[in-house]
Amino acid sequence: MANPMKIRATAKEGVTEVKILMQHEMETGLRKDADGTLIPAWFITEVKAQYQGRIVMEAQFGQSVSKNPYLLFRFKGGAAGEKVSVSWVDNKGESRTDEAMIAA
Amino acid sequence: MSNEIDLSRRKALKASGGVGLLALLGGIGLFRPSDALAEWNKAAFSSKAMDEALTGLGATTPEANAAGIQLTVPEIAENGSVVPVTVSSSLANVEQISILVDKNPNVLAASFTLPQGTEAFVTTRVKMGQTANVVAIVKADGKFYRTSKEVKVTAGGCGG
C-alpha cells in the first residue's frame, strides 16, 4: 500500500497554489543492488489533480523525476474550504489518491 | 534477461491490441477520443537521445525562445538526485511544459499538460547523473519553443 501524499493548497488573490509531495521510490531500473542484480524500474507515470471535478493539472513522469516527487502548480479560482484531489499511478499499476482542503 | 524481453514483448502486443480496440470503438462512435485522458507517452519517456524524445513529444524542431520561457535551475547541484527545476512562460495559451535532461539515460523527465485556467508555472525535482543541460519545451498555441540551462553536478544522482 502506497504512502499518503502531502498536499498543501492555498488560495490567494484568485489563484490557488498547490504543492504536492508524493512518497515513491522512483527506481530508474538502471541501479544494481548489493549482489549486482538490476533493480527493476518502479516509478510514477501519471499524476492528475482535480478541482470541483475538473482536471487542473495532468503530469506524466519518467524515471528522471526524483525520489519522493515534488510538484508545484497554480490554477485560477479556488477558495478556502474547497477541496483539491490528487491521484497518481505508477508503472506497476499501483495508485494513490489524496485530498486536501484549500487554505486561505 | 530473456524473460524480461519476452514480457515486454507481450505487453507491447497487449497494448497494440488495446489501441486496435479503441480505434474500432471510435469507428462505431462508442468512444470519443476526448473522453480519454492522454495515455503515458511511452515512446517519449523511453527515449535515450534528445532528438528521439523531442520527436516523441511531437516537437521535432522547437523554436529557441529564451525570452518567453523562464527556466530556473541551480548553477551547481551538490546533489544530483534532487535538482529543483521551475519552468514558467509568458507566452499566450501555454498547453504543455516538458522538462528534459540531455545527458540522462532517459532524456525526458516530466511533461505537464495545462488545461485552461492553469498557469504556465511548474516546479518539480529531477535526477541528474552528471553535469548536463536542462531543457524546457513549452507548447503554446500549437507551436513548440525551447530554452536550456546547464547545471553542474558535483555528485551524481544515479549511483545510489
Describe this structure in words.
Chain A is an all-beta fold and 104 residues long. Chain A has a single domain (6-103), classed as Immunoglobulin-like (Sandwich), CATH 2.60.40.10. In chain A, 0% of the residues lie in helices and 52% in strands. Chain A contains no helices and seven strands. In chain A, strands 4-3-6-7-1-2-5 form a seven-stranded mixed sheet, with no helix packed on it. Chain A is elongated, with a radius of gyration of 16 Å. Chain A starts with 5 loop residues before the first strand and ends with a strand. Chain B has 160 residues and is α+β, with helices and mostly antiparallel strands. Chain B folds into two domains: 1-36; 41-153, SoxY domain (Immunoglobulin-like), CATH 2.60.40.2470. Chain B contains three helices and nine strands; from the N terminus they run αααβββββββββ. In chain B, the strands form two sheets. In chain B, strands 1, 3, 5, 6, 8 and 9 form a six-stranded mixed sheet that branches. In chain B, strands 2-4-7 form a three-stranded antiparallel sheet, with no helix packed on it. In chain B, strand 5 (94-101) and strand 6 (108-113) form a beta hairpin. Residues 20-36 of chain B have low confidence and may be disordered. The A-B interface holds A 15, 26, 28, 30-32, 45-46, 48, 54-67, 69-77 and B 37-38, 40-41, 45, 81-84, 86, 101, 104-115, 117-119, 121-128, 157-160. Strand 4 of chain A pairs antiparallel with strand 6 (108-113) of chain B, so a sheet runs across the interface.
